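Notes from hallway chat w/ T.B., transcribed later so I don't forget. T.B. wanted the structure written out for a chain they're using in a teaching module, and asked if we could keep both sequence and structure tokens in one place. Agreed to drop them here.
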Amino acid sequence: TGFGFGTDTGPRISLGAVFRRINESGHSILADTRVSRVYRTIGLQYRVPIGNLVSDSLVYKAGADFEDIADEGNTNLYTLGVSQNVGWGPLQRRLYAEFRYEDYSLGEDEEVTQNLIPGITLSQLRSDNVLFPRRGYSWSADLRGAAGVISDTRFLRARLDGRYVHPLGERGRLLLRTRLGATTVQDFEKLPASERFFAGGDQSVRGYGYQKLGPEDDSGDIIGGRYLAVGSLELDYLAFGNFGAAIFVDTGNADNDFLPSLSTGAGAGLRWRSPVGMLRLDVAHPFSNSDDDLRIHISIGPDL
């Protein structure tokens, strides 16, 4: 059971159960559900250990995700999939194939799509402390697409996420974060909402609302884009035990042009090194078009 709060999601709760060893081969089942103001999800995973029994597995999954997107958009996504998750030298590699049936509404568009999507994800995490790193980095690169086989459109989508932490003295840190994405697609109107890029929010460009940055249709509704570029620079300092402060600047946007027109926000915040990761209370000012002069952002969790 888990509880949380973030200004992107509002209050959230998660419930789950793991059946750790359902046979002599070590197969396991995970069933879980998560509910917040903007998303509701329920899923079931069947895990088969292979190779290295600690890190390697085959995973069969089924799930349903219901999410509110951008202004008045929403998507209902139903997924069946299988993945192979293995250590690959110093990296973690995930090969997967998913069949996705998605019913979504964005602006004036309402579509129902189905796509068979194979993909690969490579990731790596190096940290001196999982909950409060002072030196470390993490990155994840994902490439996926649909080729028209049991699919309503052809697309190829790449996304890169990176984070870096460096110590500054005994109690300070430099934190860098980036997220880049690009998509080539045969028919953008048939690109599912879950495959489009949006920016803005606690983990994106602070100073702007959740998924409030991106291309708009003729009615002014945000409908997501083909490209994404987001970057962040932050300095934090624990002045009194586990309590401290931070200053930051974020910039980025989602767009249908290869080089997005960047929107920038900057601000300051309070920090508490809690038992479950850093608690962040930020106040950010947007420097581009926005309905807000200041925006509060609350989030909690590990930095990498």
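Follow-up for T.B.: The chain has a mean pLDDT of 92. Might be a good example for the class.
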